[in-house]
């Protein structure tokens, strides 16, 4: 273990990778998530990722164990990293897609992928350590690389599909722009795929560079784990939306060809009934605005409609008739108008805090919506005293 004193030794970096991956696997294993329909996918993802970290720890320990017997240790380390990253790519990709939508990837894909990886990994190690000849080694390496590249492409396509659909589900369920709550998933996934690409690059470089890649991989799993654990602590708002179909038996986006035709509120109500319902909604909305309820976010359509004493469908119908826009757009206008007043009346309050006060949980969304409706940034609105057409 004297090599641990030399940070430039690849064995030191491998030892750190082994320790870090095992530690992270242990932490994920001991984290308890209350079992429910909300958290079933999250528990499965947690377990799958923890197992992939254990595979990483095993491969690092296996490499260190073989060090005294292998002359081409740098090349051998590259192969063990290929196996490690293949398993982690599979586990992380499957888990992240499954969190977003468990119907995108068939349940048996993980088992098939794991089996193929185990077979190609065994053949690759056997070809390198055994005496099967150069042809056997090249065939095994080619098969492993091909599987690695194909699975990466497959999961990229599936993740993109799941992410796009999940944004629609999340925004529809909460009637807000809530995509920032799962943005970390996309960012981490991009880094994971870049880690895959970097591996192929480092395998083509001369000896001495693989330890740099292993160090990068350590940083990646630490960063990913920190974000994943943070998500576990604040998952409910996201999983409420994703679990909506399972819990309610309804699909937010059912297939058009099998969707039963429903009567809209205009057809279901006569003029007198509609007027009575509209007057009730108008009274409730007036009080709702006076109480600044539009500042509240992370509420579902059903919760907001319940506060207004109506149904989501009737509320949407009312807004389309009375406001000539949907409820989300109208509520954003109320928030922006509120923000415009605060920016001028309380100049000591930072613009980012103003956005949060007025109901925007995401700073970038506040800035985007403000510019869209007002025509200038919150900062310029404040600096010009509410007259952005003036030049300073």
Automatic annotation (TrEMBL):
Protein's UniProt keywords contain Repeat: no
Taxonomic classification: Bacteria, Pseudomonadati, Bacteroidota, Bacteroidia, Bacteroidales
SUPFAM superfamilies (alphabetical): Homeodomain-like
Domain HTH araC/xylS-type: 283-384
Organism for this UniProt entry: Candidatus Cryptobacteroides intestinavium
GO molecular function: DNA-binding transcription factor activity; sequence-specific DNA binding
Protein name according to UniProt: Helix-turn-helix transcriptional regulator
Keywords: DNA-binding, Membrane, Transcription, Transcription regulation, Transmembrane, Transmembrane helix
Ranges that cross the membrane: 12-33, 45-64, 76-97, 109-129, 135-157, 187-205, 211-232
InterPro entries per the UniProt record, alphabetical: Homeodomain-like_sf (IPR009057), HTH_AraC (IPR018060)
Taxonomic superkingdom: Bacteria
